[in-house]
Structure formats: C-alpha cells, structure tokens
Amino acid sequence: MCGIVGYLGPRDPKDVLIGGLKSLEYRGYDSAGIAILHRGEFKRIRAEGKLLNLENKVKNEEFDGHLGIGHTRWATHGPPSERNAHPHCVGGVSLVHNGIIENYSELREELGRGGAVFSSDTDSELVAHLLASETKSGRPLFEAVLAVLPRLRGAYSILAVSQEEPNVMVAFKNGPPLVVGKGHHEVVIASDVQALLPYTKDVVYLHDHEVLVVKGEEFKLTAPDGKPLPIKTVHINWSPEQAEKCGYPHFMLKEIFEQPRAVAAAMAPHIDLALKAVKLQRVGFGASSVEDLATLKADQDWAATQRVLSETERVFIVACGTSFYAGMIGEYLLERLAGVPVEVDIASEFRYRHPVLPPKSLLIVISQSGETADTLAALRMAKGSGTKVLSICNVKSSSIDREADGHLYMNAGVEIGVASTKALVATIALLNILALAMGQERRQLKAAEVKDFLEALQAAPSQMETVLAYNQWFSEAAATLKKHKGFLYMGRGVSFPVAMEGALKLKELAYMHAEGYAAGEMKHGPLALIDDRMAVVMLAPQDDLQEKTISNLEEVKARGGKIIAVGTGEDPKLRRLSEHYVALPEAPWTVNPLLEVIPVQLLAYHVASSLGHDVDQPRNLAKSVTVE
Ligand code: G6P
Predict the structure, then answer these.
(1) CATH class for the domain made up of 254-445
(2) Which of 20, 49, 178, 354 is the most buried (most CB within 10 A)?
(3) Taking 90 as the threshold, does the pLDDT of residue 504 lie above it?
(4) In testing the pocket of ligand 1, which one of 26, 323, 346 has its CB within 8 Å of the most ligand atoms?
(5) Taking the mean position of all CA atoms in its chain, how far away is CA 347?
(6) Fold of the domain built from segment(s) 469-610
(7) pLDDT at position 294 over 90
C-alpha cells in the first residue's frame, strides 16, 4: 500500500504534493511526509497519523526549490510513527517507497556492519542508504538506482531524488503502481492517476521492471540495465473525481446512499432495452489493449464475447475482501442461471494452491481498485497458463483492468470509504447481468426468463431506495446494538455471502467480534456461542430456502439469542421470532443480495460511529492492498 507522489516544475511543490497525497490517502494513513528542496538541501516535514496532521505542520512552511517528493504510509516494517514516516533522507538522497523489501534483514545487517546508522525501523530507509553510498562518489542518481536494483528483492516501487541533481527524479516499478505525466513545463509522478489529472490527462503507466528518469520537463524509460524502452502515452478522458461528502458525516454513509445509482450505472450499458435481453457492451475480448475499447465496433465485440460465453466450460472467480463475497454471490448466479461450474477463491489462496485450470476456463477477477496485489498475481498466473481473464473493476486503467482480456466496469464512481460498499452492489448487478448473458447464450434460459430477471434487476435501484429508509432506525438502535458481546450473521444461498460481508463490515468498522456463517452450519459450532448477550442477524428473505432458515431461527430463539431478522415484506413468523425486524421489498433471489446488504452496512456504520470510530479510515486498514 502507501502512496507516492513526486513533482518537478514551476509550481510550489508543497501544493502539488499535498494535493496529490489527498487523492492517495486511501492507500494508507499511518503517517505522511514531504521533502522539498530548499536552499539546496531537502527540507523534510513528516507527521504521524492522518494527512491532516501533516497539512497543519506544513501550512506556514516555505520552500524555494521546485523539486519534491511525498508519501502517505501504511506501515509494514516498523510501527506508525513520525520516525518511520517517509521520505527517508540519507546523504543528500531522499526516497519514498511503496511495497516490501524482502531481503531487508540481511541488507540492514550488512549496512550496519559498514557503519550505517539507521534513524527508522523501515525497510525503505536502507534503500536510501544504498543509494547514498553509490552517489557519494559523484555517481549520478540514475546510475546509482541501476546499481542498487539488483540488490533488492520483493515487490516494491521507489521514487528517489538527490540534492546534487535538482532537475532529476528517478523511479522504479516492480509491483505497486506508478504513473507519470507531463503538465505545463512540469512532470508529476504518482501511485494513482487521480493525483496527475489536475495537471495532465496524457499519462504513462510504468510496467514492472521499468526505470523512469525525469530530467527537467522530459522523461524516459529504461530497462534495469539502462537500455531505453518505448513510451506509450494513454489519454485519460475522465476528470479528477471530486471527493466531497455532500453534507453526509462520512464518505461511507454517502456511498451507501449512492448504491441505487451505482447499480443502475453498472447494468445500464449492458441491457438491450428494445429486446429486453442482455448485450454486453465493449468487453474487449480480442482487443489489443484496454485503450482500444472505446473504438471497438460494438457488434463485432459482442460476437467475440458471445463466443467466450458459450464456449467456457468452467469459471473461476478470484478476489479479496468484500470483492470476494461478491464473487461468492456470482457462483450462485452463474451456476443456477447459466449452468456453468464455478469455483470461487480468495486470491491469496488461489495463487499459491497450484489450481488446475482446464482448457476453456474463464477466470473472473473482481477488484474495486484494480490494484490488489494478490488478485493481480492470480490474474497473471492464469494468463500465463493460457486462461482467458475477465476483469470486473471500478478504477479504469488500473493494473488489473489493463492486464485482463475482457473488461466489465462497475461505474460506481470514486469510492473513498475504506470499507467497500457501492462497488459491491455494482459488482452484484454486473454478475447478475453476466449470468443472464451466459444463460442466454448457452440456452439455459428462455428469452422470457431473461426478460423477467432483467425487469426485476431494473427495479432494484428504486427498491434499494426504500431499504435506505432504515438508516434512521439503525442510527437510533446503535446505542443498544453496540452493547452486545458479539454478532453472528447467518443466511443460506445468496444470503450466506451477504452474512459474511455483514460480519466483515462490523469487524473492520466497529472492531467487534462478528462471524458470518451459512445458517445450515449453525448446529456445527456457532450455536455454542449463543446466549442473551449475543446478537444474531438472520438474513431470511423469501426464497426457496426460507423455511429452513426460519427453523434455525427457532433454535437461536430457544437459546436466548437476540435476533435481528431481515425478511421480505410483512412476515408474521419472522416478526414473532425476532427482537427487531427489517422488511425488504419483494424480489427474486437474484436481487435479494442487493437489498439485504443495505441493513448490514447500516448496522456496522451506525454501531461504529456511535462508538466514535473513524468509519472512513478504520485503524490498520487501507483501501488498496498492493502488498501480499
Ligand atoms: C481492502 C479494502 C476492502 C476491499 C478489499 C479488496 O481490504 O479495505 O474494502 O474489499 O481490499 O479490494 P479490491 O480493490 O481488490 O476490491
């Protein structure tokens, strides 16, 4: 994780760096820092905690130089503290780093034996030491970087500057993302294109093992041996996304309320309104790069997609965190609507378990950020063995989006809250659409069935609006709910992944013990947890499994558990059994997850905020996990 930004140009670097760090803070908020040339030396200012602390510290500072680097940190080596904050400055070299140096201990020992004195506990500082020992004999920074790279192991990206070369920045990517762009007589480097968009829309994404050398207003790319590499500029046709709370107390609550719109925006491009059928738009199987999508002939592209959908014999879905739970819902949808066998895996398991990927398999990777390290590694592994990859991403031109063969977009708009919300519902909508498209192409579904499912899906956004009305109730109930010793979330079928998601949300936001379980597993352990201090959130919307779930509820009730039931409409049985009852609008099983996820999000949000937690930036977490 961590966010990197660098600036060389006529503006005040302080403003560019702080502005850039604001758009990168989702990558980590343990500490932040900047180093800017001032009177020929780097003046470094760092602060523990959120970026705001750094902003307060630098607001009256002045710098006369035009070169600077900045960093926002998610701690790997060494606790969050000012001492461990980046940039690290050694012997005139300043450096920021994102990732992990795996051979950190041996390098640190070696440098220590040579007399190096460390002023932090980080793996990053030793790269600054290595560079400084190369530059002290007068070696240019670029050559120093080339000399040091072979000594480093791990997945890492670095950006280095030297006070001896006030016109130069050198960066290297091996894993975490880096992107560079030229503005008006200026160059900006960052971990995310959002930080560049105020200055330029023509950007260059670095590939792994590329060295970037900026000199004045120009830059070039080389291989680690110094050989020049071609530069491919990409034009970004979107504007910097505004991160405004629009009157909501937190981004997360705003994003929960944006979910109906996110669902509509995700599915809209793929519905043929006249035919009431599915027609996936510009997925790009067969296109040479993601940049070509806009110019593809829609019918030709749809024909290529239809081939993939009908020829696929097995689907693998791989993701992390909330995106993984979306993938679990996808398994139910694709198996039942399209009749295709599906395996769902957590990316960090999939990549190391030597999965067997038969020919005619399709790997679906789901990632809001498009940068999650394990998901990206899984994609690369599958591509390496010849498997076609379809990505479902929110961030366009992210690493996962660029490397996949086919592309579906969440279109959820920027998601700031670290705990994912609208990206999840957008993905569930897309997986519905994909399952219908596959069912349609493989003749598993009749045209009339596709039409019915589509109509229900199109009604989902307005139904979600009605569920959002429970916001007030959860905000009032939070004071009581937070007193429980723990929460057990249960459901069957597509409600099971929603139960897992509900437990995850409560853990990450309220820091309370919560577990998600398949309701049918209750008697195999979790029942032992139940007493009158345990809350049980039972997801029991009307579907073909509801009766079984209600039997589970009786068993919880008999043992004194405090039940919050989520069901469909006026359901006397559920009302009788539960302490609190949340009534969802009537919908088919395919749409239920879009509705039942809202109460579990609201519950976690309000319990966490009533406990006084920072729900947008929960402790120890980051939005984009670019290290494994
Ligand atoms: C982190 C975030 C989660 C997110 C997960 C996967 O853990 O805090 O909200 O679901 O990463 O991220 P991705 O960007 O791959 O969907």
Answers:
(1) alpha beta
(2) 20
(3) yes
(4) 323
(5) 13
(6) Rossmann fold (3.40.50)
(7) no
